[in-house]
Write a structure and sequence with these properties.
Layout (H helix, E strand, L loop, with lengths): L1 H21 L6 H8 L1 H4 L33 H9 L15 H4 L4 E6 L2 E6 H12 L4
Antiparallel strand pairs: 1-2
The protein binds heme C.
Heme C (HEC) binds next to α3 and α4.
C-alpha cells in the first residue's frame, strides 16, 4: 500500500518537473536557422550547406541579400520567400515553404513597406538573424 503511494507521489513530482521544462524557450533566429536552413544555405548562410551539392538550383548566398538589393536588406521579400507566400516565378521547388511549419508560433505585427502585417514571430526572428549576416 505504502509503495503505491510513493509511486503516485513520485509520478506526480515527475509530471510537475516535466511541465516546468515544457515552458517555451525564447525564439532564437540563430537556432531556427541552424535547424531549418543551414543544411542547404550553409552554417554561415553562404550557400554551402551539405545538401547544396545535390540540388539542381544552388541555394542562395544569404549574406549577399542586401548587396543584391542596392544595399537595403529586403525584409519583406525574405519573409515572403521563407513563408512561401510570395515567390518569383523562377523559384525552384527545392526550398521548402516554412509558413505552415513555423506559423504555429505567436504572431507579431511587422511593418514593412508601410503595411502592417501579422507575421509569425519565428519568421521575424529568422529575418533578423539573416539581416545580421549581411556582408559577413
Ligand atoms: C532544401 C534546401 C533549402 C532549405 C532547407 C532552405 N532553402 Fe532557401 N533556398 C534554397 C534554394 C535552392 C534557393 C534558390 C531558389 C531559386 O532561386 O529558385 C533558396 C533561396 C532562398 C532565399 C532567396 C534568396 C535570394 O537571393 O533571392 C531566401 C531568402 C532563403 N532561401 C531563405 C531560407 C531560409 C531562411 C531557410 C530556413 C528557414 C531556407 N531558405 C531553407 C534551398 C533551401
Amino acid at each position: 500500500m505504502q509503495k503505491t503511494w510513493i509511486t503516485i507521489a513520485l509520478t506526480g513530482a515527475m509530471a510537475m518537473m516535466a511541465g516546468a521544462c515544457v515552458k517555451e524557450a525564447p525564439i532564437s533566429g540563430k537556432r531556427l536557422y541552424s535547424e531549418n536552413c543551414a543544411a542547404c544555405h550553409g552554417p554561415k548562410g553562404q550557400g554551402d550547406g551539405p545538401f547544396a551539392k545535390d540540388l539542381i538550383m544552388p541555394p542562395a548566398d544569404l549574406t549577399a541579400l542586401s548587396e543584391n538589393n542596392g544595399g537595403t536588406f529586403p525584409r519583406n521579400y525574405v519573409i515572403s520567400t521563407m513563408d512561401g507566400y510570395a515567390r518569383g516565378e523562377h523559384f525552384s521547388g527545392a526550398m521548402p515553404e516554412f509558413g505552415v511549419k513555423l506559423a504555429g508560433s505567436d504572431v507579431i505585427m511587422e511593418t514593412g513597406d508601410g503595411v502592417v502585417t501579422p507575421t509569425p514571430k519565428a519568421l521575424v526572428a529568422l529575418a533578423d538573424y539573416l539581416e545580421s549576416l549581411q556582408g559577413t
